[in-house]
Amino acid sequence: MAIPATCEQCGESFWADDAQGGQQSQCPHCGQATQVPPWQTPSGGKPAASPFLFAMVFAFLLLLCCVLPAVWVVLAARQVLP
Ligand SMILES: [Zn+2]
């Protein structure tokens, strides 16, 4: 990922590295030092995907812990009972 930055000296736009977020960077157009804005998370990106992934894992574990033992108990009961 790169950070979109605008040079304060010449007004040209350029891409800065993530490590340069919130720090001074050298403009590739005029060579002057300019401020790079802090790195920002794109809206609807990782923060939204993380709870969804957590819910999927939780649902899978719930299925594994509740449904599978129930199936196993039914199968075991059928084998034991006449
Ligand atoms: Zn510049």
Question: What do you see in this structure?
Answer:
The protein has one helix spanning 46-80; strands spanning 2-6, 13-17, 24-26, 33-35. The protein is built from 1 helix and 4 strands; from the N terminus they run E-E-E-E-H. The chain is 43% helix and 20% strand. The radius of gyration is 27 Å and the shape is rod-shaped. A two-stranded antiparallel sheet has the order 1-2. It has a two-stranded antiparallel ribbon with strand order 3-4. With 82 residues, it is α+β, with helices and mostly antiparallel strands. The protein folds into 2 domains: 2-35; 43-82. Zinc ion (ZN) binds next to loops.
Furnish the topology, listing elements before pairings:
Blueprint: E1 2-6, E2 13-17, E3 24-26, E4 33-35, H1 46-80
Antiparallel strand pairs: 1-2, 3-4
The structure holds zinc ion (ZN).
Zinc ion is lined by residues 7, 9-10, 12, 27, 29-30, 32.
Bound molecules: zinc ion
Query: What separation lies between the terminal Cα atoms?
Result: 65 Å
Helix fraction? Answer: 40-55%
The tally of strands reads 4
Chain-averaged pLDDT: 85
Structural class: alpha+beta
Number of distinct helices: 1
Rg on CA atoms, Å: 27 Å
Report the major sheet: 2 strands, antiparallel
H and E order: EEEEH
Unreliable runs: none
Number of domains as seen in the coordinates: 2
Shape: rod-shaped
Strand order of the largest sheet: 1-2
As a percent range, the share of strand residues is 15-25%
